[in-house]
Design brief:
It contains 4 helices and no strands. The chain is mostly helical.
Amino acid sequence: MANTMSWEVVLKRPQYNATLKKALKWSQLSIQLSPNNSYYLNTLAQLHYLNGDKQKATEVQQKAIDIYKECNECIQEA
């Protein structure tokens, strides 16, 4: 649920910092509950980018990509 609300903020791209900061907190909560979820990490990366932290956005997005690739490799090996 927290990730869904955060993703809605990404899609709407608000100009209000307070909204982005709340969405960042929601997204971080999602990550705490499911730390290896590449979709949740992608949302967090997008929010960091919208918040102007491009370095953090890049780091988190790379982690999301790595986890996604790892997951797909496991599926293909099964």
